[in-house]
Amino acid sequence: MPGESQGHAPLRVGVVGVGYFGRFHAAKYAALEGCELIGVADIDAERAAAAADAYGGQPFTDLGALLDRVDAVSVATPTSTHYDVARACMERGIHVLVEKPMTSTVEQADDLIELAARNGLVLQVGHQERFFVAQLGLEHLAKTPSEIYCQRLGPFTGRSVDCSVVTDLMIHDIDLAQSLVRGPVTGVIGLGTPSVTNHPDEADVTLYYANGCNVRLVASRASEGRRRTARIVHAEGEIEIDFLARTCTHSSLGTIEPRMPERKGGLNGRHVLINDNLGQELAAFLDSVIEGGSPMVTGEDGRRALETALLIEANLNPVLDAASAR
């Protein structure tokens, strides 16, 4: 059970939704120390069975049957179902890691945050890049940034077709920017267009913050190549991050190495390689459940990123020079 110390039974975990990304959650839980993957749930019985065969545990098509057996779950269902699934879990006293975006509306996010607080549950939101950024110590290097420019481009995968590229991909960089820039957004200029779905699949956005920082975000899920980069301009220089190459350079300090070769977290001494964002994220989730602490990415963090993402969507003009996102 949550809160038990080292030497007690492993934390019982499950995964709800084992499509493309949910399978990664199941694989990581199966490999992590200090937890036992009890089962996976999916509305597709064959998909649930295939994931259980690959990673262990039992397959379920009935969510309630899985929740009877676990202490904590990852929710990796389609975005439009995040709220209903996460709420059902927390109403049963289950700790939840919900993939981004945490919900479809801010009101739904507020409800989950309140429910978690009322029931004393951990609610963590799946913004993975935070874990790599934290290990670089950017919160100390990039004090009062004046400009941030992020690109997150990739080919169409057929996933997340129930939401726009803003809440699918750009939200990672929204969360990164908001972890470094405190204060409200005072203005938004955005261009976006659908190209492979009925939602905007490419977007080029500038956010203006009250403290004077400007943040430009470019995202595409219809690009020919893959690119995930960030440039942060601040008083002491510029920081360049390549999330795919796992590199970071500072104009004053040169190449910056992550501070740890691996993570040794929690009461169960889990070891996770530094280039494994998802493993880091799930290990941190387990730590929060066992130790009773606040997760690195809280429900409030997820809500703030969602609120900004929805603000962007509301201000997207339906025109985009596709060449700018490639």
From TrEMBL:
<dbReference type="InterPro" id="IPR036291">
    <property type="entry name" value="NAD(P)-bd_dom_sf"/>
</dbReference>
<dbReference type="Pfam" id="PF01408">
    <property type="entry name" value="GFO_IDH_MocA"/>
</dbReference>
<dbReference type="InterPro" id="IPR000683">
    <property type="entry name" value="Gfo/Idh/MocA-like_OxRdtase_N"/>
</dbReference>
<dbReference type="InterPro" id="IPR051450">
    <property type="entry name" value="Gfo/Idh/MocA_Oxidoreductases"/>
</dbReference>
<dbReference type="Pfam" id="PF22725">
    <property type="entry name" value="GFO_IDH_MocA_C3"/>
</dbReference>
<protein>
    <submittedName>
        <fullName>Gfo/Idh/MocA family oxidoreductase</fullName>
    </submittedName>
</protein>
<dbReference type="InterPro" id="IPR055170">
    <property type="entry name" value="GFO_IDH_MocA-like_dom"/>
</dbReference>
<feature type="domain" description="Gfo/Idh/MocA-like oxidoreductase N-terminal">
    <location>
        <begin position="11"/>
        <end position="127"/>
    </location>
</feature>
<dbReference type="GO" id="GO:0000166">
    <property type="term" value="F:nucleotide binding"/>
</dbReference>
<feature type="domain" description="GFO/IDH/MocA-like oxidoreductase">
    <location>
        <begin position="165"/>
        <end position="239"/>
    </location>
</feature>
